[in-house]
DNA sequence: ATAAATAATGCTCCCAATGAGCATAAGGAG
DNA sequence: CTCCTTATGCTCATTGGGAGCATTATTTAT
């Protein structure tokens, strides 16, 4: 058909993006096709860099500038040959942060809270009931279905990644948790591939096509880990904000609540923000001072590191 | 010439590896061509995974198993078209840890201490004199050669990455430091490209071809960051070792000295090791107990995290 | 032998970071 | 005027980690 019979060591590059924004205290992700896909596009070789390639089609598709871009992972999917049936596809995924939402029409590029895909990851109002009620029991059943040594192994992994449903929750382990559920056949994506373990019905949470939910998990995990030592949330905030808004933003990303006074102490200890002089009383309660990020410090912390009151399990 | 006129969106994949081992308290890296290159090979599409591709040619080339493999970064070099002059090359680099050294003959695959490439990164015996004597002065000169605003910017970056030559050294910033030197035209690799800044002669440290020294810097940085929260040094140690040997290993990687008593406290607090019962008096001084890693805990920490007395600057 | 150097170990002290809460101030809604 | 909600200031207790003293056990030098 095509004039080029695709030499063996030649592949096509596909770029995937996890684009994150914050709206109404929800961490939003840009999706396509009714939420089933992450935006992705080919790497056109005229781009000098991979990053510039990403930026190009993302901005073309969303009409919004990307604040921060970071490479996530490169993956050669053995089960997804290119459409021409010849070349292998290597997908390179990126995490992108953007400040504003797509002003788009009703359809296609659509922002969705990432907790629709990973409802068990939201512990902002305390331990997610999903874990104790729905996930742990099914995982336990799965663990039972193995012989002694494998069972012990599975049980330990469950404990390490999901804790006990009330304590020992480590919000960074997004990817490990998804992979465990996948392996246990508790997400629809897994069942598609393995006709065998038709047993358990899936855990709540919207699936995606291909490995896109896995990529999303990777992005969330990376972002959650990152905010603990780099002030990247800066990229997601409007130019002015109150400290509570900032706290809610971090909580949205981390998926767990934080102590208000300690959060404030940490933030201004590090000199990350400065008051603009303005005051707002949009919310109820006592009016709050408005702040902005301090450019110099943010640049400095970009290399030196930040701290957030997020670390210990519980 | 070739029957396939290479369609535009087609690229060739090249795999690069930073292979690390520890010998005689030196962090060793496998190199080729008299130390000028990192091992690299093509990604043959018959491999199901990228990782398996890496493992395959690494083990073929070195005849040693890879303990731990981790993806580093994917990079499309705009300046290095494939040899056929048509396809773009995308290189995917990996970090690999191995316990044993190549038993190889005198030549080619050769292990070299990574401090030959980055001598300023070795602070194990205190502040590296190179930084204060050789690097900081030249960087200062470089900063002077810019107008006011850019100068301030450069000075801040110098301070952030190199500190002041005595304190505020952050061992993780290997890549940032290399990139700064590159930008300042203080490494030979940079001069090759820019004929202009022929000024300063380069800083000590052996260069590599292409961007391989940059990839190496990425690997070192990743490893240094990693040992602080994952017990990966486990992959580099022999089955039995003394606590001092373990400490020296970590110091070799981190490039800075550690407090002996505190190191021990931390290690056994976390239950990472257990005594084998053996005792050694290979070195001078009081004989030391031998330890081995505790498999269960190591697996557990692989997900949950570890601690090392490495964090603060100074 | 004896002294000196090198390592292994045990323990104490101190300080900075941080998790938790109490208390007070300042607006808006009924 | 009272209650509710949020902003802010401060205190307290705990802990993790940095430093260093002291002691013990061996090898090496004199």
Automatic annotation (TrEMBL), chains A, B:
Q: Which Pfam families match?
A: WHD_NrtR
InterPro entries in the cross-refs? NMN_biosyn, NUDIX_hydrolase-like_dom_sf, WH-like_DNA-bd_sf, WH_DNA-bd_sf, WHD_NrtR
Cite the NrtR DNA-binding winged helix domain residue spans from the record: 234-293
Q: Which domain of life is it from?
A: Bacteria
Q: What is this protein called?
A: NrtR DNA-binding winged helix domain-containing protein
Q: Which residues cross the membrane?
A: none
Taxonomic path: Bacteria, Pseudomonadati, Pseudomonadota, Alphaproteobacteria, Hyphomicrobiales
């Amino acid at each position: 058909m095509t004039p080029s019979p695709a030499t063996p060591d030649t592949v096509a590059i596909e770029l995937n993006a996890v684009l994150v924004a914050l709206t109404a205290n929800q961490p939003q992700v840009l999706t396509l096709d009714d939420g089933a896909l992450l935006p992705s596009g080919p790497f056109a070789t005229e781009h000098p860099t991979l990053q510039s390639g990403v930026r190009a089609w993302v901005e073309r598709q969303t009409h919004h500038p990307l604040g921060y871009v970071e490479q996530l992972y490169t993956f050669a999917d053995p089960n997804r040959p290119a459409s021409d049936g010849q070349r292998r596809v290597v997908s390179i995924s990126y995490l992108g942060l953007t400040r504003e939402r797509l002003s788009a029409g009703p359809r296609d590029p659509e922002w969705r809270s990432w907790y629709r895909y990973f409802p068990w990851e939201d512990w902002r109002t305390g331990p997610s009931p999903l874990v104790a009620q729905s996930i742990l029991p099914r995982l336990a059943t799965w663990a039972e279905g193995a012989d002694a040594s494998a069972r012990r192994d599975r049980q330990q992994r469950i404990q390490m990644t999901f804790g006990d449903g009330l304590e020992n929750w480590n919000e960074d382990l997004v990817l490990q948790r998804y992979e465990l559920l996948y392996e246990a056949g508790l997400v629809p994506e897994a069942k598609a591939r393995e006709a065998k373990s038709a047993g358990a019905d899936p855990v709540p949470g919207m699936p995606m096509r291909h490995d896109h939910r896995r990529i999303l998990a990777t992005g969330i995990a990376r972002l959650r880990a990152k905010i603990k030592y780099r002030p990247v949330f800066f990229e997601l905030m409007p130019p002015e904000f109150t400290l509570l808004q900032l706290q809610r933003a971090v909580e949205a990303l981390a998926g767990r609540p934080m102590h208000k006074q300690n959060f404030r102490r940490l933030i201004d200890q590090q000199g990350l923000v400065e008051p603009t002089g303005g005051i707002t009383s949009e919310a109820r309660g006592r009016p709050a001072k408005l702040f902005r990020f301090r450019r110099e410090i943010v640049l400095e912390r970009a290399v030196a590191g930040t701290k957030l009151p997020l670390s210990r399990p519980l």
